[in-house]
Fold each of these.
Amino acid sequence: MILSAENMSRSYGDRVLFENISFNIEEGDKIGVIGVNGTGKSTLLKMIAAGESGGGKLTIPGGVVLEYLPQDPPFEAEATVLEQVFKDDSPLMVLLRRYETAVEAVAAEPENDRLQKQLLELQQEMDNKYAWQLESEAKAVLTQLGITDLQQKMGELSGGQRKRVALAGVLVRPSDLLILDEPTNHMDNATVAWLEQQLLKRKGALLMVTHDRYFFDRVVNRTLEIDNSKGYLYTGDYSLFLQKREERRIAEASAAQKLRNIYRRELAWISRGAEARRTKKKDRVERFVQIEAEVKNVQTEASLEMSSVASRLGKTVIELDKVSMVYNGIDYIRDFSYILLRNDRVGIVGPNGAGKSTLMDIIAGRLAPTGGSITVGQTVKIGYFSQHSEFPDSSQKVLEYIKEANNYIETADGSRISAAQMLERFLFPPELQWVPVNKLSGGEKRRLYLLRVLMTAPNVLLLDEPTNDLDIPTLSVLEDYLDSFAGAVIAVSHDRYFLDRFANKIFALQPGGTLRQFVGGYSDYENTLTQEAAQLVAEEKPKEAAVKETAPKNTKKKMTYSERLELENIDQEIARTEAELKMLGMEINSCGSDFVRLGELTKEQEAAQQKLDALVDRWAYLSELAEEEEC
């Protein structure tokens, strides 16, 4: 057993997040935690990572190692990327620091045998603990996550980059239980696919919160749902969870209806005249009081609803003509032309830093392009859901924040829904509507910001990474809303499920700033790329076959004098290169945590290895020539 949780609970004042949640984690479990934002998913993960039980009992056997990735990981501003990965309190970092100190001591007293012996022992301990291997693995993982400058200070990185450095750390450092809170936020699609494979290959247990449904479906094998402050554990992936949850809710609704029917009968009985009441049995009266309390405690399922209301949209929507954006000599957007149609559903994909958000800012009119022009129709009313929620006054009350956008919205049938009513539909009950915005969870803030955007009744929606921090129930309702939205939608997203669900066109941002257009959702886009790659391979095969056919058969090539001379000397060159590689390896092992020098030596080692490989290949070729001549 990795972990046992019994009756874990957490409340803030009168607000109950969850109570009496119990579950076990065994080796090989990959558990996904799901629930509406504000139900305490992140709080539960944080409590487990800190060993807190919330009045219950949390059992973690001795020797079990936990690694935790919070939504906003702490960092040392002056630490380098590599130093942050091997954080100060990790056993490996302690060992590396001891080794560095020993190297400095030997350098100061090279004749001291005792210090030399200590250094040798530490070096052997480093080898035994695979320290060099872990360091090499860390570099590979960081590169895969888009972090290439390992000596850059953490304070110089963006929030998304710092999150990826923290993710690299928990992936590399050995652990029995990996706890991840929204690991795919701020990742591009290719990196999310890579992380999927890493977690699937990983042998240890996993406890994770994620709103990426494809990622959830492919990685987890058990699902923990927090619903109405209670925990429900299901065996299976996301698809099976949806089925089992529906069965549970149907059973609960049936049981609740039976209880209400009993209550009505008992209420009619207890409500008879005063004379009859005096003759009632005491135990039945007590039973009625108990049933009444149970009926009042039955909670109906809260649901989100959005009315698809948009302002009238004229003939011209948004037209982009050869739009470009050049910054510091880099083409982020180059000669992009497109006429947005009234009912377009466009998804934009591309690697991080490629310029997707820049394009959205240009379309929204927040950023002027360096080239080209944009024409926006007179009737266009843009609603821009940006990556960063906009709260100018975080002390403002929730209801006041929404009323600033609109006091009410009109539905398709002409009725009006007030701001307070819309907040209730968005799972902000009356008591929460008078809470300051800064008291909300990160996910609740994103849901509130989304409601504000929609309350303005836009007819063109720009969504920049809408799936970041939005819970799955809210995403499902947003997708239903977009189905009937009478306007155009453009969304930047790394969520493959969301793109498949809403988009009918995919624009892929290519190197050099060009946008390539594909018809269909994300899966169609992926299939097209796969087919093109297969076709390219198929086209290359006939060319290779043709080259082989045209090559003269049974012809022996005679060695030149220079080739004979090269063959005589190549063994010595191979031996010198092998010796050079061995010396570089020894120097790498002795340079401690001097990561600058380590990086230089690693490059030299790679170059020497490439040279050795080339020499061996050349030796094999020359040896074959010599053998053919002798035949």
Note: The CA atoms of residues 164 and 228 lie 32 Å apart.
Amino acid sequence: MSKLFKNLVKVTPLVLGASVAAAGSAVAQTMPGTPQLKIDPAAQQQLDRIQRAQSSQQINTGVYQGSMSQVTSVNQLRDVSPTAWAYEALRSLVERYGCIVGYPDRTFRGDRATTRWEFAAGLNACLNVMERLIQDGIAVLREDIDKLKRLVKEFETELAALGARVDNLEQRVSFLENNQFSTTTKLRGEVIFSVADSWGGEASITNTNGTVTDGSNQDQTQTVFNNRVRLNFETSFTGKDMLRTRLQAGNFNSTFNQNGPAGTNMTRLAYDDGRDNDVTIDDLFYRAPIGTPFGNITVWVGANGLNLDDVFLTANPFLADSGTGALSRGQRYNNIVFRGPSGTGAGVRFKIGDVFQVTGAYLAGSGASNPSEGNGLFNGSFSTGAQVGFSFIKFADINFVYVHSYQTAADIRSGLFGNVSSPLTERPFGNVGTTANRFGLQGSAQVIPGVLNIAAWGGYADASATGVNAAIGDNNTGIWSWNLNLSVLDLFAEGAALSFGGGQVPRSDKEDGTSYMVEAQYKFPVTKNILITPGAYAIFNANNRNNDTIFVGVLRTTFRF
């Protein structure tokens, strides 16, 4: 074994510590009169550039980038024992030159593999320490200087390359600083292209008075091409909070809803949002964490577009998102509790560790900005409720939600559950003020971690007419819904998911028959930012039991940037 290789072996342990943080202050002193270390000016310039990059953490060497902790004795490193083969070399570097730091947990992790790049950066750190010692009149062992000279020669190529990399990084950082949009705001965009068609029968409608409007029983739907664009401007003032401003446009005028040829809202797409590609401010809310000795608190304040599913946890991790989750609107989450009057208001979540959390919210509907009687923040449509959630193991969650809602005669047109069910269930008493006590239980678990996820929910709502209509008979109804889905993860590609789901669409006791829906889809990542999701879903007894089954086929492409 050559002497050079032995010297490399001796100083190898310094790399992991010295390459991720600037060298600490030296504390060791030896006999004076030791010759100084000579480095030619060109090499010195390269080393200076490397040192600047290290101190500003601009070199990413691929190792742990967390805050390091300076150690003054090798005994402070918990995973280094006196019997380790490199113990003496490490002790010399720590106690004589002070150019070794440890991880925050006081470990050194000396068995980790290192690269020549990392070694060169660590070598440079110790060079800088020795130079400071010499300049301060503190002697350095000649033996160590000779070793470093040989190492500098051996790693001359890597040191020169590091200098070039630093120059390039400095230029790029300077360009970004001069041309950045904002120091506090990031743009996150999502664009959806969707091709869809339906076939089967046109759904008939059961009216509030019990009469039935028959459909033609012939599929007249044409293949459609829809789009939705969302630009999220996410601003952070502390690094942990977020102010979201979303611009949205879409062209879903009558795609598979009650006003279209299908004759039912049960066929609506999950991302059915936006009309005539008009640009609107779809979201405008602020979220901030507050740390306390008892647990973490997160607060939401929304001026527009703050929804119940923004504050409450849906426990449906792979299908809840409108752009990458379920294809159908009814399969995203528990519609009984997560759809209701919302948009303006506040929410708060108190989380104790990783196991238990309690969330509360008060959200007003579309009339929150209207000062007239029967509107406003507290006298119009609203939803208020609480959620209690538990995480039993790393990949399992269950929560219970209660929401009390009130919708005015004008707002009930948007439906008790966002128009995902039949007209009779969405407006069981017609266009009159309606209150509802909503209960939901939902859970999700990766029964095979990283392979198979199962999610389910059940919901019940007790709805009642208000005002003059409350004195009329038949002014109360119960509404039920349930669902079960499973997702096979990373099937054929990392990030892919094959999902199946189905259950009962929200159904009022006043309804004639029960409606069910099932869905199958495969989400495939073409690249990190492009997802293609082909799939189909079917609705049985759409609106009521007199209707034929309706099928919807979809090919959705999602671009994210």
Note: The first helix runs from residue 3 to 11.
Amino acid sequence: MHSYDRYVRRPVMQFPQRQWPDRTIEEAPIWVSVDLRDGNQALIDPMMLSERIKLFNLLLDMGFEQIEVGCPASSESDKKFIRTLIEDDLIPDGVTIQVLCDCDEDEIRSTFAAVDGASKVIVHICHPVSPIHRELYGMDQEAVLAVAKDAAGWVKKYAEDFDGEATFEYSPECFSETEPEFALSLCTAVQRIWEPTPEHPVIINLPATVERTTPNVYADQIEWMSRHFENRESIILSVHMHNDRGTAAAAAELALLAGAQRVEGSLLGNGERTGNVDLLTLAYNLYSMGIDPKLNIEDSTKIVETWEQCTKMSVDERRPYVGKLVFTAFSGMHQDAITKGTERMRESGDNTWRMPYLAIDPTDIGRVYEPITEIGAQSVRGGVAHTMSKYYGFKLPKGMHREFEDAVQKACGESGKADKEQIMDTFRREYLYQNEPLHFRRIQVAEIQSDDDAAYDSRIRLIYTLGGETDQIRAEGKGPLDAVQRGFRDKYGIHIRILDYEEHALKAGSDSQAAAYIHMMDEDTGRITYGVGVSSNITRASVRAIFSGVNRLGLVDQSEA
């Protein structure tokens, strides 16, 4: 027997009337942060009062209007925090705090006492209702239904003496593992006791307390419930997902398609076990689709820094949108496409975000796009050219990419990676510092005064060293570069042909330098390479490029000095 045989495959719902697959999300849900309750109780080192207040203020700055602040009936630290918020007048108008308690009369009474003085509060009751819980606690469906009815009555009773505005919320815990018909009967019984209206609705929260199946099944459950509720317009349908299978965000989005109006979750997915659904991921997902997330999420760096300070946890480098590496391209192909996409946007003047490999513009959320500062052997193609352009201003000809990429890949050696400094060092070694055996020193160019049909129009005097010994070439040609080629042929019997030539300024201004790239062939052997030269004078840069290429091809031997 294999170990996986111990696990039961969860059945799908037979629900051919489902409509959620054909819908699209049109607007943001009501957001509820549970960072200060579910998130805090899941910390190895729970937050101190000052840290809770700091995180509460971050949530306010982000625009959360519903914030779960604790279980005051079962936690003295939660109660102290809640009383501080109320007594120090830290809850702005328009913000509702939410408190959670079990379906126990003493806890419900104590919960209302803890929020005395609050202007707006959501009192949230929950209890486990799934078959496995009923089995463990020796309760049948009727007994569980009685618990829900009693608790709903107590909430309504103690709310009568509450001076503020109280909204009621009910959660059948482990809803996603419960028979839909039984879950509906529980919610309906509670709803009838609370007697909601469209003007004063109740919240029915349907949690995936433990994620055990694919998100589409949860969406079916949500849509089925939404269709079968009594007095649906008097219910705010809420969802609360955990991330045990790593698909909480997908489950939340499909639940919204299925009729959910409200999402409970936490920043960066903190919470029991694998955590709650990550509200930041959901909000940025909406943002990436052109939907107003109704949260202030433009400064992701501040959000992450404050969260890390308060929770004493760290954000994974690959966490969607906010991880340190999510806007860093390692692949050379990716870098090249992003560069081209950026140039196209700039040239077109169209601000619509159509960019390969980047779901959103990192600058919209306080980040910057960073191409690789380190290239692995798997990511060389295109990456080195991008690095040379971004960091050093060298716009390598496309035909040169493969040649230089091979050189960088070789330089990576056993480590399999090279940072931008190593890439530049390789470029210098392979091209700019190719000074042996021929080392260019200077060139003098004079025009030949003659008619237009003259064979040559330039005369050069080329000074260089070969093996450390100074030598010179005098030659004529159709321009300085042609003269240099002819000079090498006459002096050393080598036949080089310039296949292509490119140049550009390395920087703007009067002190700018030029880079020249010569693509050349040794006509005797057919071997091809590039040479590169840099100088403040374009002719000298071009001649240096020829010397670079001749040395790379090894066309002149030091013994010829």
Note: The longest helix spans residues 141-159.
Amino acid sequence: MKKCFSSIKDSSMNSKPWIFRTYAGHSSASASNKLFRDNLSKGQTGLSVAFDLPTQTGYDSDHQLARGEVGKVGVPINHLGDMRMLFKDIPLDKMNTSMTINATAPWLLALYVALAEEQDLKVNTLQGTVQNDIIKEYLSRGTYIFPPEDSLNLIADVTEYCYRNIPKWNPINICSYHLQEAGATIEEEVAFAISTATAVLDKIRRRVSTKEFPFVVGRVSFFVNAGIKFISEICKMRAFVELWNEICLTKYGVKEEKLRRFRYGVQVNSLGLTEQQPENNVYRILLELLAVTLSKNARARAIQLPAWNEAMGLPRPWDQQWSLRMQQVLAYETDLLEYEDIFDQNPIIEKKVKRILKEVNLKVEKIDKMGGTVAALDYMKRALVSSNAKRLSKIESGETIVVGVNKFTTSEESGLSSGDGDSVQVVDKKIEKIQISSLTDWRSKRNNNLVEKAKDNLKDAARKKINIMTASIEAAKAGVTTGEWADTMREVFGEFRAPTGVTISKSSDSESLPTLQKKVKEVSKKLKRNIKLLIGKPGLDGHSNGAEQIAMRAKEAGFDVVYQGIRLTPNQIVNSALEESVHIIGLSILSGSHLEILEDLTNLLKTKNMTKIPVIVGGIIPEKDFEIIRKMGVKKVYTPKDYDLNTIISDMSDFVEQSAA
């Protein structure tokens, strides 16, 4: 493979630092605006916007599925008015804005452009990124809406529009970050991301001229993950750089070197952050930061770091500041930026890079033979679930050491997380009511004739496969809401349910599994059929990794498992439990909406006289909520510190046996 490191070196000794970002947004547009301005005043040099789950999945704040989710994991943006407030007093033409948005990326970009035009700014000067990578949503995060082919067409719409109208904007940010969060190995992360990039480019290639296409390739960016094995991660990034250079040169004929550069931003690994001894997360984040900065020729263009307490809940402004300061100390106090790449011609690094590239190419070839990423979705999903199962099994057995979790678990009381329990930021429960009231007011004041006309134009563009961006921008100006935009698209494209990746293939080598299987068999014998478990993912949280691992281990132990994937209402879960005659319900909720969802679900169980069915819940749930949840009738609460899957399955058997007695 052609080497490209020497060709992209910066000849100056002192490099410019990367863009400093923190991933931010919560509660409301006004609260997020204050957070943005505060962070910028502390030396942050770019914005990375987190949107709440209703915004990401195309629902307005007053939709049934949005209950309990509004403002929880990001900012709710229902319409142009919310966008105005979000960027109040922040000059869009001087800002580099990254928006972590995928299924509704065309819409959020349309709102951003509409706001810029409203402020009489030159749209072609805007700089930033929309993530706009739907493939990884089918595989890991779950904020997809439409079927894959239609989604790829929307990605192509955004890319074509940006090339012609916002040339400094990155129209797609191929996101391997969430693949690693879903359990991907280094080789899977690189291979699946590269396959996604080529799938998108192959579609866009048909929309632009041969002369224009290299410039479109040059705007593709990536968003990657960096885990704790930081030598391996350095090699991964160097492999990414080499492979992308080779693909651009040989597959796409891009001759200009700067258009072949692997441009990427990064958030370091959140999967490895622990609720136990959370102060250790600071060291983990720092080591992972080094993985994407030490190798100059494979250095990130922009970095956002998680906060030390993200495994416990929403970070406070001070926690985000601490992560920002970590970047600033590395960039400004050390001599990192004074040297060329210290890994060039290092035989150990080069050997590791070659091995990664060999494995990646084999996986890419397999995906190509299957017909590309859309055709290979089920294969890729199963691979991620399997790899994650192996990762967890190694932690359970102690083969992989996690300090404070399965080794060195004794601890002094932490000065960071002890005390009154305010070590994370809590979203005010009134926020949802305020947001819905604001949405109602917005609808009452707009011109409904213009709204209906704009929606008709949207539908017409979607049906005729005309680029959706122009119609979306006009809809934004007319006052159309996020939910209305997405519902219009749903009418044309329909909705999609991605593969779960859950199989009965062996995932665990745990020595205690035979003992667990024996216990499950004994309880099943008393029931005169196998224990039947319903795993539910209520609300809009699409992070299904935990649910998938519980499903696999339960199957291995001898359970019958009903798992229908993500984004279910409490009513759908209860009806499914009734229709399937299940013995136990297990819920996975990570977005912070647990109290509202559990209240609705347990009330439904009471209404239908189903309270004998035990309910358990797992997720990022603060301990102060445990007693409230138990009073609702929930048997047990599991958090990330409960990593032993066999113990959880054993508990389930006990609860079923007790309820049947």
Note: Residues 102 and 132 are 4 Å apart (CA to CA).
